[in-house]
Amino acid sequence: MSTELRSNHPIGSSRWATTRTQWKALGYNDEEIRRPKIAIVNSSSGLAPCFSHLDKVAEAVRQSVYDAGGLGFEIRTVAPTDFIMAAGRGGGYVLSGRDLVSYDIESVVEGAKLDAMICLASCDKTTPGQLMAAARIDVPTVIVACGYQSCGVLDNGRRVDIEEVFVDAGKLAAGAISFDDLCQMSDRAITGPGVCQGMGTANTMHIVAEALGMALPGSAPTQANSETMWAAAKAAGP
User: Fold this and answer.
1) What's the gap between Cα 58 and its chain centre?
2) How would residue 1 be classed by pLDDT, with cut points 50, 70 and 90?
3) What pLDDT digit, counting tens, does each position of 9-33 carry?
4) What residues contact 111, with CB distance under 8 A and at least 6 apart?
């Protein structure tokens, strides 16, 4: 790739003038406008705990970009979550959500010719969509794994997470578990933000991103809001 910034249009051109006008209206000065422009890809959503902490992560990443001499622009994408969105159309919206994530990214990052991007990875479909976009746009990209959720403990001392709720729900019809016991599991399975704890698609893709060299070494898997997660977020900008 060329070291020339894609986002800096020729001075005096109509594209430069209108872009400068827009960014000045956001409060940026001329020095900031000349910086590398970094997309901070955030699939934040209030629909599920997978994404509920991402706004704070995005702010930490934006600050790390600024401190390193760049200018971060937070952009939003659709936030597919399997357990919630699989209810409609036979689950068809979930898998296709990967493509929507990639299209959201491409339309903004390539449309604005931003110079690089930092993607906040969370639920199953966000990381594949982010990697698809990164491959097609071909700009420097870092994946920040935003971690798995903490789990709970039942009255009998048994550790329980959402994967066990999913499995044990099938036992209800067979009478192998009571409705009250299933509700207690559901009440306690998730005690913090982040993706499902099991080695499903989310944690697997976080590890794949690191194996591909798209995430910082040692950053996956990690617990949401852990020191490891915050360290990766703050190191993403430099």
Assistant:
1) 9
2) very low
3) 888 899 889 999 999 999 999 999 9
4) none
pTM greater than 0.85 (yes/no): yes
CB 149 within 8 A of CB 104: no
For residue 88, name the pLDDT band (cuts at 50, 70, 90).
confident
CA distances from 220 to 124, 144, 145, 223, 237 (A): 14, 9, 6, 9, 17
CA dist 201 and 37 (Å) reads 30
Q: Which residues contact 71 (CB under 8 A, 6 or more apart)?
A: 28, 32, 33, 35, 36, 37, 38, 65
Phi then psi dihedrals of residue 150, to 5 deg: -80, 155
Number of other residues whose CB lies within 10 A of the CB of residue 174: 7
CA 74 vs CA 11, 119, 202: distances in Å: 25, 10, 22
Looking only at the bridges linking them, the beta strands covering 71-76 and 37-42 are: parallel
Count CB neighbours of 116 within 10 A. 22
Q: Which residue has the tokens 């705990």?
A: 49
Does the N-terminal peptide bond of residue 10 adopt cis geometry, omega within 30 degrees of 0?
A: no
> For 133-152, how does the pLDDT look when each residue is reduced to its tens digit (9 = 90+)?
999 999 999 999 999 999 99
**What domains can you pick out in the chain, each with its CATH number?**
35-149+196-235 (3.40.50), 151-191 (no CATH)
